[in-house]
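Aim 2, interim progress. The first record below pairs a target sequence with its structure tokens.
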Amino acid sequence: MTADAPEPDPYIEHRRLLFATAYRMLGSVADAEDVLQDAWLNWSAVDRGSIRHPKAYLVRTVTNLSLNRLTSARATREAYFGTWLPEPLLTSPDIAAETELADTISIAMMVVLETLGPVERAVFLLREVFGYSYAEIAETVRRREPTVRQIAYRAREHVRKRRRRFDADDAQRRRATSRFIEACAGGDVHAVVELLAPEVTAWSDGGGKATAAIRPLHGADRVSRWILGFLRKPELADLTMEPAVINGELGVLAVVGGRVVGALSFDLVDGRIQNLRFQVNPDKLGGLTHENGLARS
């Protein structure tokens, strides 16, 4: 940097980290962007000469804004029509290659994070994903350090018990995705059944604004018939299915006339698809229009 070059604005410098923090806290691209806007307003008004560690200050600001928003959102989500799923986003293939980072933003992990309380979620993310010290987290969430250690332990155990890890290499996932798209395009229920684990479960989130199953569907036959029935809807006659990296994992986008109308994520077990999650709520598809940058630190 030359002597005449202006110092980079810390907010701009750390924006990817701030978005990553807010998104993991809220499970919503739109809400994360709103939080970042509020954080920018706060940052613009503050006396920056009094801030010794801008990055820590900005992360603390975003975390607390997210906590406030998440606390107020929980009642809304409890009254949500049908199944609530996180808002998906396109991510760079580079993230998918970083297994640990990809796991922290997968739809499956976001669903587990939703079962944590707001403070538990913040503590877990700041510690396990972003690597902050207990002292730093205590200052951020305004709790005593021993209390933060207890919260971190409970949250870690909660996630461990609910987050089953599924081992599938990239080649297996590409094959499964390609075969799934081909089977759906062919409309052969038996071909789709062959790709699904017998105990498969499918969740779909339409938010009352798009066709979706209100309750989870269980079993390969039932899930496959529901998928193909959905694809036969007249308004989806021109639908195409395209592979895409969604939340760090290869998934499928449903596209009609160049417009994304749905996103599918799934787990892979012994080469078969399990735990399908369909996001078709039009209000939750904004993060699928372009790649979003995410960061660990």
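The second target in this work package is listed in the same format:
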Amino acid sequence: MLYTISEAAVKMRLTPYTLRYYDREGLIPFVERSAGGVRMFKEKDFGWIRLIECMKATGMPIKEIKQFVDWYMEGNSTLQLRRDMFYERKELVEEQIESLQKTLDTIKYKCWFYDTAVAAGTTSVPKNMKPEDMPDEIRQLKGKIDL
């Protein structure tokens, strides 16, 4: 089945503008065109677009995504380069996850802190609470964060 750019955009939850941009930047060079120049997307193209979106979600610049596409188009001689690129991305995403987990831990602690303060009518209750009087999860969170 073939999809127009509008149909492909709906299917991918993107805008036609985004797909045109990807095409202009050389990120989807394999998308076929009709005799009249209309882009025609196939089912297999959507997996590639999902990969582009995944790389973008890691913060990878379009220029680096384009480099990956170029290496892909070159074939097996670039396997190591493409593999290395994904290992670098993996490391970066793992660091981002760790950072976000610390942020989430802080927010969870602060939610407990303010729930406790609101219930008591003062921040002095959670501020002065002994660790052994805190719920286990909160005590563990407090031990992980610098507050």
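The two ends are 57 Å apart (CA to CA). This observation will shape the mutagenesis plan for the next reporting period.
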